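Reply to dn_fold:

You asked what the input looked like. This is it:
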Amino acid sequence: MSIEVISILVLFGSFFILLLLKVPVAYSIGISTTISLLLNIDRMPGLTTIAQRMLTGIDSFALLAIPFFVLAGEVMKQGGIANRLINFAKSLVASLPGGLAYVNVLAAMLFGAISGSAVAAASAIGSIMTDRMEEEGYPRTFSASVNITASTTGLLIPPSNVLIVYALASGGAASVAALFIAGYLPGILLGLAIIGYVAYVAVKKDFAKGERAPISEIWTHFRKAFFSLLLLVIVVGGIVAGIFTATEASVIAVFYATVLALIYGDIKVKDFSPILLTSAKTTAVVMFLICTSMAMSWLFSFESIPALMSDFLLTKFSNPIVIFLIINVILLVVGTFMDMTPAILIFTPIFLPVVTELGMHPVHFGIVMVLNLSIGLCTPPVGTILFVGSGIAGVSVSKVIKPLLPFLAIMIIVLLLIVYIPEISMILPRLFGL
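and this is what came back:
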C-alpha cells in the first residue's frame, strides 16, 4: 500500500475517531490534518505549512462579510425586529386553520432571511411563538418541529453566511451575487412545502383559527415591519445591481440594523457591549472552523483526493442521476455529524469537479449542498438548530424527533426537486445575467 493511500486512510480515520470521541469539529480537523501531514513529512513542506494555510485560508476580503452579518443578525435578534415580523405575519394568516403555525413559518423565513442566521431565527421566533402556540392548543413538540425546520429557510434566502463560505470554497466558480439570487426560489419552495404539511396537520387535528385581521390592521403591522423588510431589498438589491460587494453590504446591514433598533427604542447604547461580545464569540468559532477546514482542503488537493473521487464516481457509475443521488446521500450522512461550515469547505473541492463534469452549474450545486446540509442541522447528534429549537421550546430532543420526522421527509423531497430540476435554482441568476 502506497504512502499516499495510507495518508488518506489516516486522515479520514483519525478525523472520524476524534469526532466519535466528541472532540470539537475544528480541533478534529486540525489534529487529523497534522497527523496526515506528519506521515508525508518527506514529500511536503514542514508543519509550518498548516499554520500558513490556516492564515491564508481566511485572508479573504469576501470573508469579512461573515462577522458583519453575524453582528447585524445579533442586533436584529435583540432589537425587536422579530416581534414586528411575527405581528405582520399573524395579521396575514392567523385566521386560517393552524394559523399560528403558518405565522411561525413565515416569521422564521423573514427573520432568517433578514438576519442570515438559522440559529438566530430559531431562537428569536421560537422564544416568542412557542408559548403563544401552546395557549392555542398546539403541542410544544409540534411547535418546536415547525420552528426548527422553518428556520433553515434563512440559509437559502439571502443574505446567507454559508453561501458566502461556499463561494469561497468553490474557488470563484460561483459568485456571491449569483448564489444570493439563486437561493430565493428554493428557500421559498421549502417554506411553502412546510406550510403545506402544516395545513394538512391543522385540518386533521382541527387546530384553532384566529380572528381575521381587517385591512387596516394588516396595513398597520406592515408599516411597522416595512423598514425591517427593506433591509433585504437594500442588501440583495445593491449586490445584484453591482452598487456594492457582499462585504460592503454586510457593513451597510450592521449600520441599518443599528439605526433601526435605536429608533425603535428596543436597544439602548449600553446594550451593545453584550451584543458585540456574543457576535465576537460566534465569529471566532466560525473563523477557526474556516482556518482548519482550509488547511484540510489544501491537503486534499496535495493528495489529489478530488481527482481520485471524480475518477472513481465517473468510472463506476455512468448515470448522472445515480451519481447525484450518491453525492446527496453522502452529504446527508455528513450533515448529521459535521457542522455546515467545515462540511462545505471540505466537501466542495471533492464533489464540485464531479458535478461540473456532469453538467451541473456550480451555483446550482451550491444551493443543493446548503439545503442538504441544512437537514443535518435538524438531526442528531450534532444538529445545532435541533438543540436550539428544543431548548427554546423547553422540550427534550428525544420527544421532538418523532413529530420532526415528517418535516425532515418534506425537506428531502424538496431537496430532490431542486437537484433534478435545475431551473428552480438557476432561473433567477440567468434572468439577471449572473
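The chain has a mean pLDDT of 81.
Hope that clears it up.
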